[in-house]
Write a structure and sequence with these properties.
By secondary structure, the protein is α/β, with parallel strands linked by helices. It contains 12 helices and 17 strands. The two termini are about 40 Å apart.
Length: about 400
């Protein structure tokens, strides 16, 4: 840009000041305002920081296929308005007076959970994703402690309890790190739980947002990786991600050499498909983990191969908070991040349509700096008594240019 940049609207400055003081404020956002409608610009209230809260200025938020399912009512009706987004990366703007371990200006993230009961056996073991009372999702959920209806990361800021905030290493590109908060941990958790590492063989079914992360993480863990794809056009893409072997799964002859060669298969496909070809690739005591959640029933599972080689067929959701932090640190150490295409707020609806069509390699990420400023006056900016005054956070990253459109992925 030539000449003096246009200053941000006054409402935007007031909002930022309120957030950085820990005060209640209105955040810019994109969300679903009416059933069956598109994503539109709107505003959502953010609470004043409680003593153990962290206020975050959002820089980037990944787009997950579950955002589309929730926003379009495919998983049941949700209270509106609904602001999706659970792959959040930003900077700490303010902290409550009882917060420890987080400071203003630090890069942080928020994944799929913003709370849980904290008391059940699963929560006490650090497995909040299995909370027996049900975890509180980052959007579209009732927060039992505050009474709020949670709104997600397609927004300029968010306020989250410190126990559910993650440190994002500075060495990671913040846009490419955002999908790690869902796609990354969803694949890392079963890889770790079932022992992927040196000497093991891991199969990955599907090469989309989840699949490409499974390939990268399995390789970084030291496993030999075999990718199964339905399209010959994706063979080279799989190899570029690090796959040792790539098999077109519809070719029966191509499947024969990988029979009984794998210890673990990660199935990321979210459409109905037969599992029999993938059970055939597993050694004795092997495991097939279902990550993709089809909208229609899957074909029946044939128990014969399970009995014949003591195989396991199981599923896995996200990971707990501690494991998610472990994953982020692992990714920083091994230079693992998602392959992303950054979009601005005005392009969100088109990105959703392309995601449904499989036209992305491999994950869309929203640049939150492109959200429009609120049009209504911000509340007073004085800090609440429960939140210590803080100095302003440093500027967020500059807007990023979207990458060129690429061929569709699974």
């Amino acid at each position: 840009m030539i000449g003096r940049p246009v200053p941000p609207p006054l409402g935007s400055l007031r909002r930022a000041t309120a957030a950085r003081a820990g005060a209640a404020h209105r955040a810019s956002a994109y969300g679903i305002a009416e059933r069956g409608g598109p994503l539109v610009a709107l505003e959502v209230p953010r609470r004043a920081a409680l003593p153990d809260d962290v206020v975050i200025d959002i820089d980037f938020c990944g787009l997950c296929h579950s955002d589309v399912h929730a926003g379009r009512g495919e998983w049941g009706a949700r209270q509106l308005p609904l602001v999706p987004g659970h792959e959040i990366v930003g900077r700490v703007a303010a902290v409550g007076r009882e917060v420890s371990g987080f400071a203003v200006g630090q890069r942080v993230g928020v994944g799929c959970l913003v709370d849980s009961c904290r008391e059940c056996a699963s929560c006490r073991e650090g497995l909040e994703q299995f909370c027996e009372r049900g975890g509180v999702g980052t959007y579209g959920a009732l927060d039992r402690r505050t009474g709020e209806y949670t709104q997600g990361g397609y927004s300029s800021s968010i306020v989250v309890n410190q126990g559910y905030v993650l440190h994002v290493p500075e060495s990671l590109d913040p846009a490419a790190a955002a999908p790690l908060l869902c796609a990354g941990i969803t694949t890392y958790s079963p890889l770790r739980h079932f022992g992927a590492g040196p000497g093991s063989g891991v199969g990955v079914v599907g090469l989309g947002g989840l699949g490409h992360m499974a390939v990268k993480l399995a390789k970084a863990l030291g496993a030999s990786v075999t990718v199964f794809t339905t399209s010959a056009s994706k063979v080279e893409a799989a190899r570029a991600l690090g796959a040792d072997t790539v098999v077109v799964s519809g070719d029966a002859e191509a499947m024969k050499p990988v029979r009984h060669t794998l210890d673990l298969v990660i199935d990321t496909v979210a459409a109905p498909h037969s599992l029999d070809p993938y059970f055939a690739t597993l050694r004795r005591d092997g495991t097939l983990v279902q990550l993709g959640l089809p909208g229609e029933p899957m074909p029946p599972v044939n128990p014969r191969p399970l009995l014949a080689r003591r195989l396991r067929y199981t599923g896995s959701p996200i990971g707990g908070i501690a494991e998610t932090q472990e994953m982020l640190d692992f990714c920083a150490e091994h230079a693992v991040a998602a392959e992303v295409e950054v979009v601005d707020a005005a392009g969100l609806n088109a990105a959703w349509d392309r995601m449904v069509a499989g036209d992305v390699r491999y994950r869309f990420v929203l640049d939150a700096s492109t959200l429009p400023a609120p049009q209504t006056p911000a509340p007073p900016t004085s800090a609440p008594p429960t939140s210590a005054p803080q100095t302003p956070a440093p500027p967020t990253s500059a807007p990023r240019t979207s990458a060129p459109q690429t061929p569709p992925a699974e």
